[in-house]
């Protein structure tokens, strides 16, 4: 497994959640009332049941503290949410690719279009006030990445 990359885990190793982390002072309790903890955990439960069985353990852990969640519990909920897919699809490509590189290049092109649409959609909703940074697109095919940097190198490619 040399050279392999770490994957995302919905629950960080070494994190221990307990009732001792629940707020105790009236000020802490009042500040946590503004946090949508139960709503977020409920949304995670729905996602877990419908599409994300990988978060089952983590959601079970954070759901134990819905009656009196603390900051550490809220941080754990945000960690579960932060790297989930917000858009995905699996389709048969409409064009015939002559190579794996070309198929990956076409898929990356479609993913870029979707990412631009999602950014514009979020801007229109007002979820984020403005997004100035470029969109990062990950591609695991070095040939497709090289082709995207100098796309004139491949002849007869339709995208």
TrEMBL record:
CDD domains in the cross-refs: RNase_HI_RT_Ty1
Name the source's superkingdom: Eukaryota
Spell out the protein name for this chain: Retrovirus-related Pol polyprotein from transposon TNT 1-94
From which organism does this entry originate? Vitis vinifera
Q: Which gene encodes it?
A: POLX_2195
